[in-house]
UniProtKB/TrEMBL annotation:
Residues 428-857 form the GPI ethanolamine phosphate transferase 2 C-terminal domain. The keyword Endoplasmic reticulum applies. The chain crosses the membrane at residues 432-450, 462-484, 490-507, 514-532, 544-562, 574-599, 611-628, 635-654, 666-691, 698-718, 738-756, 811-831, 837-861. The lineage of its organism: Eukaryota, Fungi, Dikarya, Ascomycota, Saccharomycotina. It is a multi-pass membrane protein. It is found in: Endoplasmic reticulum membrane. Gene3D superfamilies: Alkaline Phosphatase, subunit A. This is GPI ethanolamine phosphate transferase 2. InterPro entries: Alkaline_phosphatase_core_sf (IPR017850), Lipocalin_CS (IPR022272), Phosphodiest/P_Trfase (IPR002591), PIG-G_N (IPR037674), PIGG/GPI7 (IPR039527), PIGG/GPI7_C (IPR045687).
Length: 864
């Protein structure tokens, strides 16, 4: 045992090194041009003197354009011709930081920006020394040009020192729907009266927060969108008045950085997540001819309203309308609907400058563009690959008589569209040697750990064979994009197959009780797998959680929630506070459960969730964000006191009981897991509890083996992760409980709560497995032939060897898939997110929960 602990202490850090080396090669920052684009002497004149850039986080296209939208004033501007609408397609990952990069530089951000998006304190993604339309405004109008910003403090991290005035707010405190937006709006009176800024940026967060808490159909959403519409009316009125009074033209831009899926989350590539609303508004837009306007054809299909453009196209369009050069790293193209502001020759000059700026990036990316083009091979190039076609188009554009040709505009747009598409899908600058070294390290460790797992002291051949099949099957599944997106089905099928195997074993040994256990467990599994339909294919389809969320099911949902709280109360009273006396034990058990229920009820009411009338009386008035924090802190405090009391009382108790100690910790931690779970997910703990009770009985039967207990625990960890609504998409990462009890951003605390919230099921079954192993060890401890003398040895030898081997092979398979499929169409939307999730499983679930948590629990229990 000591040897294995030493081996673990050496291999875990080595695995981290292998993972970091692979990540270094797989997630390099894309090379960028430094410096600033030159000011073109023949650039068309500016159309607008200043701009108000209003970004509403997660503003999906239908929120503005659908018939059900409450943004009536914005729609009236579109109908009057003073606003031009678009659906701006956002490139994955659809999270704020990379989307702001795309909206300001016109480039395609690196996928690693999705990770940096969570670390608010990180400054490695700063755009301070990169070209952007903000930098061009600052540079060209150095004497008078100023920028002000109010809202999401991601802008302050990306553009340090850029703003004359600013007021940032944290984007991750998703429980707050009002203060984050009021903090922006309160500056409007002073700023609209001021004349010392050229660009005002407003980043509103309330729509995104409502989406995370209650989804796009939250009862708070129409009211919030009406609030945004009122602000648009206020801003447009100012723009119109300025034009009439002093002739100052101001462009008002309303946009979303991304959309949201049907659950209110984002980060993936579904239609709802990538479809962001975009509206340009100004009285000057009424001068454009009708045929230059966005078409309303195909209204609303896949959230595609009016004309669909790429979000990167916003950057050159803003630059052109403000009379500034296109940023150096821009891959967007000027939106053709706005060309009507200039005469024909100026339009062609503008598009040619757009093409020249993009060609600099293309030439630096593709060495073959340096080869001279002759008239003899021009036709072949135009019919060849995209790179060859770019080569031919550029040669045509450079010809002396190009500007005078009748198809010059269509040729320029053909070049721009081909170049944009080519650059958007260009692979990162992979560091293959680093990736290979990382893979070799992980491969050696995976083989070592597998040998350890199958040669452990347990002699259960059937389980070892099943474990080997699962390793192989799961590893092969990681090479299919659809299998990664729908990984939950692999585990549902693996669970069913494993239950059949165990039922057969029980029948072979004529153990009727064990056979009944596996039949009952199959019934529980059926309910668990239908609790949430996750993945991509059936995400958002009707399931148990959807049923419980319906208005007429509100009473049933809260009855189940109450039942789960009562179950925790019973277990605390029986396993934690049994020595304090009947009355004191009742009070000590009731207090933390009451504190937990009070917080969950208050949080549901503040989020606008349906709550039965008989419970609303318990929280008669709104307590606000501060009140929620205090109730969450009280629940956390109660959890901490319970845990400390249980440890101290177990140490001082003369009647040492390792099983009772482990089970007490298990139920105390369940208190924390429920605290960090969404309202609709609390009833699933009743199903987890049923599975745990069945497995406890199985652990006490003679047909059980330690390896079968561990493999069953591994399967339930994976099943519970997906059954709770998670998937391998960043869009399913639930932030709604990551700020419980926290009034400000803390990378460590928010990270811990985020992990607990999303990995509540696997944490539950880690502790459940340790409880089962303690029962198994107790049953065999009286046997002289027992292979295990203590629960500590059992956890170390069988449990950790299986868990470590599985996660090492899972990590190896995903790394190999990312290396081999690095040019795959879905490398950044499917395989890269899976790599991040696998890293989280390896570092946090295996490293922290399984290894340190499981070992600590067994060591303390054995020391009693």
């Amino acid at each position: 045992m000591a040897l294995y602990v030493l081996l673990t202490a050496l291999l875990l850090p080595l695995q981290c090194i292998g993972l970091l080396l692979f990540a270094k090669g797989f997630f390099p920052y894309k090379p960028v041009f430094h410096g600033y684009a030159p000011i073109e002497p023949d650039a068309p004149p500016a159309v607008f003197d200043s701009m108000i850039f209003m970004l509403v986080d997660a503003l999906r296209s239908d929120f503005v354009f659908s018939n059900q939208s409450t943004m009536e004033f914005t729609q009236s501007l579109i109908l009057s011709g003073t606003a031009i609408p678009f659906t701006a397609r956002a490139a994955p990952p659809t999270v704020t930081l990379p989307r702001i990069k795309g909206l300001t530089t016109g480039s395609v951000p690196n996928f690693l920006d999705a990770v940096l998006n969570i670390a608010e304190s990180d400054d490695s993604s700063s755009l301070k020394n990169q070209d952007s339309w903000l930098a061009q405004v600052k540079r060209r109008q150095m004497q008078t040009g100023r920028l002000v910003m109010f809202g999401d403090d991601t802008w302050l991290k990306l553009f340090p020192g850029m703003f004359e005035r600013s007021d940032g707010t944290s984007s991750f405190f998703v429980s707050d729907f009002t203060e984050v937006d009021n903090n922006v709006t309160r500056h409007l009176d002073a700023e609209l009266a001021a004349t010392d800024w050229d660009v005002m940026i407003l980043h509103y967060l309330g729509v995104d927060h409502i989406g995370h808490k209650g989804g796009p159909d939250s009862p708070f959403m129409p009211q919030k969108l009406k609030e945004m519409d009122d602000i648009i009316q206020r801003l447009y009125t100012h723009v119109s008045n300025k034009l009439e009074t002093d002739g100052t033209s101001t462009l008002l831009v309303l946009c979303g950085d991304h959309g949201m899926n049907e659950l209110g989350n984002h980060g993936g590539s579904s239609a709802g997540e990538t479809a962001a609303a975009l509206v340009f508004a100004s009285p000057l837009l009424a001068k454009l001819e009708a045929d230059n306007r966005a078409s309303a054809e195909g209204f609303g299909n896949d959230y595609e309203y009016y004309s669909v453009i790429e979000q990167s196209d916003v950057v050159p369009t803003i630059s052109g309308l403000l009379g500034n050069p296109f940023p150096m790293n821009n891959i967007g193209l000027f939106i053709p609907q706005f060309l009507g502001f200039w005469k024909e020759s100026e339009q062609l000059n503008l598009l040619k400058q757009n093409a020249e700026q993009m060609y600099r990036i293309l030439k630096a990316t593709f060495a073959e563009l340096s080869v001279p083009v002759t008239t003899t091979n021009l036709d072949a190039l135009m019919k060849g690959s995209d790179v060859e076609r770019i080569h031919g188009l550029w040669h045509t554009i450079q010809s002396p008589d190009f500007i005078d040709s009748k198809d010059s505009r269509s040729t320029l747009y053909s070049f721009l569209e081909t170049g944009r598409n080519l650059l958007a899908r260009t692979s990162s600058n992979y560091d293959i040697p680093s990736m290979l070294i990382g893979i070799l390290i992980i491969a050696w460790i995976a083989v070592t750990l597998y040998r350890r797992a199958v040669t452990s002291t347990s002699s259960d051949f059937v389980t070892k064979a099943a474990f080997s099949v699962i390793l192989l099957g799961h590893g092969l599944a990681m090479f299919g994009s659809s299998l990664v997106e729908e990984e939950q089905y692999f585990w549902y099928w693996a669970a069913s197959a494993w239950f059949i195997v165990q039922f057969s074993v029980a029948a072979r040994y004529k153990s009727q009780r064990a056979a009944v256990c596996w039949l009952a467990l199959s019934a529980v599994m059926f309910a668990v797998r239908h609790y949430h339909h996750t993945g991509q294919k059936f995400a958002g389809s009707f399931d148990i959680a959807s049923f419980l969320a319906l208005d007429f099911s509100t009473s049933l949902l809260w009855l189940l929630i109450i039942a789960e709280h009562l179950l925790i109360f019973k277990n605390l009273q029986f396993y934690v506070f049994t020595e304090t006396g009947s009355i004191a034990g009742f009070v000590c058990s009731f207090t933390p459960v009451a504190s937990l229920f009070s917080f969950k009820l208050s949080m549901a009411l503040e989020a606008g969730e349906a709550v039965p009338r008989y419970l609303i009386a318990l929280v008669p008035v709104s307590i606000g964000a501060e009140g929620l924090n205090k109730r969450a802190q009280a629940a956390f405090l109660a959890f901490g006191i319970c845990l400390i009391f249980h440890i101290v009382s177990s140490v001082w108790n003369l009647k040492k009981d390792a099983f009772k100690f482990i089970r007490g910790v298990f139920h105390i931690v369940e208190l924390l897991l429920v605290l960090e779970s969404s309202t609709v997910n609390i009833p699933i703990f009743l199903l987890y509890g049923a599975a745990h009770s069945i497995l406890r009985r199985y652990a006490s039967y003679s047909t059980s083996t330690s390896m079968s207990i561990v493999l069953t625990g591994l399967i339930w960890q994976q099943v519970s992760f997906f059954a709770s609504g998670n998937s391998n998409s960043l869009a399913s990462l639930d932030l709604s409980n990551a700020y419980n009890g926290i009034s400000g951003f803390s990378t460590v605390l928010v990270g811990i709560l985020l992990f607990i919230s999303n990995w509540a099921g696997p944490i539950y079954f880690t502790l459940s497995t340790v409880v089962q192993l303690s029962i198994f060890q107790t049953r065999h401890s009286s046997s002289s032939s027992s292979a295990y003398s203590s629960i500590e040895e059992l956890v170390t030898t069988d449990y950790l060897s299986v868990m470590h081997a599985f996660h090492a092979h899972s990590l190896l398979a995903v790394m190999l898939a990312c290396l081999i499929l690095r040019s795959h169409l879905f490398i950044w939307t499917v395989f890269s997110p899976k790599l991040l999730y696998t890293a989280a499983w390896f570092i946090l679930q295996q490293g922290v929960v399984d290894t340190f948590g499981g070992l600590a629990l067994s060591i303390i229990a054995e020391a009693l």
